[in-house]
Amino acid sequence: MLTAGYALFAFIYTFLKVKNPQHNLMTYLTIWSFLILTIYLVMSVFVTSYHIYMTSRGRSRSVCKKSVLPKAAYSVLNGISTGLSNTGFTDKSNAGDVVKDVNEKIAPTPYGTNNQNDVESATSSLSVKSEVTWYMIMTWIFADIVYVFALIVTVVYFGALNPSIGRTSYGDVNVHGVNSVLVLIDAFVVARPVRLLHALYPALYGLCYVVFNTVYWTFDKDNNVLYPYVLDWNHPGITSAFIVGLTLVGIPFFQLMHFGIYKMRLYIYKRIYGSEVPG
Q: pTM, whole model, 2 decimals?
């Protein structure tokens, strides 16, 4: 909540503080990325609050009755309701699907009840259905994008752009430096897994910005250069090399870095609790 509040404050502050910018602020990749960071953090607060509210009402526990489910299924769903499996948010409708499908798979047959493998198959596959909701998917995609591009913005700004500018304001520090701090804090405390193939999402996001930047530049090829010497189509060789390098090296590198942080979280959990992360 604190990180979301600060991100929202910094985003509003940037627009209030910058007077008569040379280009509309929303043309910059920095602002695009900070906006996504703000949306992600604020959305995470609401999603988490919703989960806590639903858990406190006991809705997710409504299907976890021994009279309805066998012991194995009850155990899995009880893990969902108590948060042991890091399931996030269980919709009532999905919970009904769990009961229906589990009952179908483990119902008695003319030759006796189904075996334990059927129970485990039913509960494990359906617990995944109830785990992932559309709002979880949205926060995950936003995180995949901003985890990579917040760090790219920081590295490119302080490594290539700031030396030529020669000054750094409080607003610049917020959107070019604090953004990465907020991302790293989130990366170390969040319970969401990291998938290497999700590097596709920041790559697509970067492609969208390159297309936008190119179209914007065509309207005024002399003045509509947002990132001189980095993303400047008046020097297509340098710009193309930067884009290729970012796509083939930068994005995969930062995705691997976050994957390493994820593996570190799993290791710490195992060292503390003596077991693998449930679910």
A: 0.74
